[in-house]
Fold each of these.
Amino acid sequence: MGQIKKLEKLPPKREKIETLSILRQLSNSANVLGELKGIAKTIPNQAMLINAVVLQEAKDSSEIENIITTQDELYKALVTTKKQPAQVKEVINYRKAIFTGFEIIQKQGFLKVADIETIQKTIVENNAGIRSMAGTVLKNDRTGEVVYTPPQEKSEIFDLLSNFLEYFNIHQMDLHPLINLAVLHYQFESIHPFYDGNGRTGRILNILYLIINNLLDIPILYLSSYINQNKSDYYRLLNKVNNTDEWEEYILYILKAIEETALKTIDKINNIKELLEKTVNIAKDKTPKIYRKELIELLFEQPYSKIDFVVNKLNIERKAASRYLKKLEEIGILKSVKMGRETIYINENLIEILKKY
Ligand SMILES: Nc1ncnc2c1ncn2[C@@H]1O[C@H](COP(=O)(O)OP(=O)(O)O)[C@@H](O)[C@H]1O
Ligand SMILES: [Mg+2]
């Protein structure tokens, strides 16, 4: 059975979204997130951190939608211009869409409908845009049963989207942004404005919302790993709000996801920082002549590297770049693999860390 009632505009009734248990969980989630924001600032090169976290999220968020890839395939895709299998391409697109969204809000500080369309289009690579034909329904993967019917009329979709964006862009003074994030995510998924890509687009909107509200400076907190591990609850709770207008359990789920993923990300950052320091020391010690801070940072920005990258980053000749990479392999910092005619140098210690999360 589909839902009985029509999707309502925001905001929901306050007593439904700000209960005592929600407030209790909220303070934990907000504290850990604050800690994450602080720790992120201590990483000298922010691109390093963003790159590492964003690719992982692209993989995890796509996995929720059954688009499965490996980290190795993705990193390889980033170092070649070769045509990639569809699934790999879609994850690489997702990564690009996160950066696109981040640029948009850095530039203008708010979102328009067209921006959401840009993000979605970057992921799915088609121009279908907002749904204009009826017929889209959400089904239970396993049973095929229709669980939710989103608004069908184009005018209603636009109406709900503009209400959504008003809530998204205009600072809601009296409610905590993390509660709003949960509310907004539900609302976006329930409007389901596109034929496809709604889940992935909605999860990008979450990180943009954190940045707009100054809860983070850079896009490094993602809920997808938590959602993957608690996937049936994710669907069940979105559905529970559809059917019963009971928000508490769903909001608690999102707040818990924020707390857990923030803790994991803090741990990850600490590990990366430690490895960076260790790597710098080894390089300084064993190959003082070629040691350059930018070179080591490059291996953390792009854990799969190649001569061209070094040439561009350090502005040096190919021959020198090649010699540097070989030297770093000799002292155990990198490991080379052949990919077609090219040699790729992998920062395996970093990959090990990234794989853990
Ligand atoms: N009952 C529901 N109510 C609202 N949204 C739902 C419900 N069930 C699933 N969703 C959302 O729909 C998303 C899937 O929509 P889809 O357009 O296929 O996105 P994608 O292509 O990114 O997979 C899920 O990730 C989830 O966020
Ligand atoms: Mg889909």
Amino acid sequence: MAIQVFKPSMTEEEVNAVAEVLRSGWIGLGPKTAEFEKKFAAYVGTKHAVAVNSCTAALDLALKLLDVNHGHEVIVPTMTFVSTAHCVAYRLATPVFVDVDPHTLCMDMEDVRRKITGRTRAIIPVHYAGRPVDLDALKEIAGDIPIIEDCAHATGARYKGQHVGSTTDIGCFSFQAVKNLAMGDGGALTLNDDLWQQRCKRLRWLGIDKGTWDRTAADKSYWWQYAVEEVGLKCHLNDIAAAIGLVQLRRLQDLNGKRKEIARRYTEAFSKFDFLETPVEDDATFQSAWHIYCLKAPQRDDLCTHMAERGIATGVHYTPIHLYSCYGNKPQLPQAESLFTRIVSLPMFPDISDSEIEQVIDGVSGFYSANGSGTIFPMPKVADEPATIEFKKAA
Ligand SMILES: Cc1ncc(COP(=O)(O)O)c(C=O)c1O
């Protein structure tokens, strides 16, 4: 079996937690979800967490809470998963794409500043690969424009000692199958506003004012009655996923510590190649969750083929999303368009073995040693006229 790029770390503890819920007779939205919300909010450092079934749903709800609508603009980075922009499109608003910082691959703050208009209703920074964006700089640029953090990669990441998703308007987290805290699928919003929390809990459950568990547990009469003042989606978390999440939350620090150590070993090994750019390291201000290990590497596609031939999977995170046809496929963000040809994600998951780490290092080192020294791999300059991307049709 190939060495995967990502792989969840599951133990007997998660298995037993699921078995307990299955035997309990309550597997939907219920007490485990409420317990997870309480513990996750405490972990992140916000008053509330509202658990949903994905980060995509969390981002969608966050924009609903801000009443983002047709005619509004929301600033998003282009180097991200499509969810970050799709949630804007769901509201019939316009995603405005910004370029990336060439080193961190997070938003380019000066481009954010340039793209703010009178119609901007929110900014959604992505903590790319788990590394926090410079939140103080962003807050200064945003002024009173709300910030929704896309923390999908960043559970466990800290900026100036505070957990991401705790110091802006809303944080949106992913607990999808291969995220740092994995449940299969799941997500959460973190926030401090009581009214937003209450509205959000209604909106994740079709607009109904009380969940079935709340009614059954609390009301002695008319327990079956509920009010629906606003139309919502059905996107709540369930107790099976929440039970896995509770165990993963307990293990998170240890799992993230392993990620950091894997990153350290890769970076140490690749530092001998001066044409490879390794991820920016942690310091007192920026503490990454190390979700992705993104190397900037010349001859990226040949390297990926070389790795695949040795049973090592690699990934690319991401095709800049303004290049997808649904967003126009027009070149306009030169850093992202140029960097896209060089980025490669190497295997990064807590249970990777020592020998697998060595295989990854040998794979990369072997490729460049066999192909010559760094002098024949100059880093391409930002293209003057970047091309649109032709997407291959599936066979
Ligand atoms: C940056 C980013 N935002 C949002 C999402 C969406 O997360 P989910 O799959 O939980 O909807 C992802 C998923 O990979 C992501 O990488």
